[in-house]
Amino acid sequence: RYRDDTISLTDLGISISMPKSKQELTESLLKAAHLPEKFGKLNQLINEGELPKPEFLTNLLVRDLGIAIEQTDEFTRIFTENLSYVKGIGREENGPRILTTPLPDKIVQNIVENKPVSIDSVMKRPSSLVGKEGYLLFIDTTETAKNITSAVISQFRTLGIPTKSIGPYDDVDEPEKAVATVLVLNASGFSEEIQFTEIFAVGVANGITPGNVILVSESIEFQKYFPASALKQGQLITYQDVNSLVMGLLMHLTAKGCLSMKISIP
User: Fold this and answer.
1) Which fold has domain 128-263?
2) What is the model's pTM?
3) Mutual orientation of helices 22-33 and 72-90 as an angle, nearest 10°?
C-alpha cells in the first residue's frame, strides 16, 4: 500500500523511528510534541514551565489560543501526555519512567535498548479503519449526489469501512447495524422537487440513525431555503473535493465514536 516513490518519512520521522541515540530520540519527540502550532504557542506562553492551575489554564487556552471551551480539557490532556511521554523516554533506564499510553512490549524494548526500527517495517504497518460492527449508510437524492457518494464509498472500501448506498424511498437491509447516515445535499440552487426529496431523506436518516445524521454540501448556501427543523436533525459538513469530504467524514465519525483505528505493529 505504501510502495510509492512520492511517499517517504520526514527527517523528523526517521530520527524518531531510527534514533542514533537516546538524546536524539528525546529531542525529536519533544520537537514533534510542540510541532502543532497551538501546542508550540502554549509552550511559549508558559515559558516551557509548569502549566497554570486548571481554572486559569482554561481561560488562557480560550483567550490566547482560540480553543473552544468544550475542547480545552482534551487539548490539555494531549499536551501533558505528550510531554510526560517525552520525559519518560529521556530519563535514565533505571529511573522512574512515565508512559501514559502503554506501548507494545517490542516497541518499548527497542526504545530502551536503542535498537533501530527499520524504515520498511514503519512504512509497511497496515492500518485500517473499521466500524463498530456496523456500516455507514449513504442516501442519494440526486444523480450528482450519487456520483459523489460513489467516489467516497470507493475510498472508504479501500480503508476497510463497510458502506451501503440507497435512494430516499428504498428499503435498507439491517438498518439496526447502521452507525451513521450521510446525505449529500444539492448546492447548485433552489429546486422545490429536490428540496422535498432531501427533507424526506433527512427524516428517513434520522429514523435509521437518530442523532447520527451527517448533511454534506459544497457550501452553506442551501441553508437559505432548507427548513431549520430539518437542519437541526443533522451535523453539517462542507467540502471542496472528494478527498476533503472523505477526511471530514473520517474525522467526524471518529470523534463521534463511530469508527476506531486498528494499527498492527510488526
Assistant:
1) Rossmann fold (3.40.50)
2) 0.48
3) 170
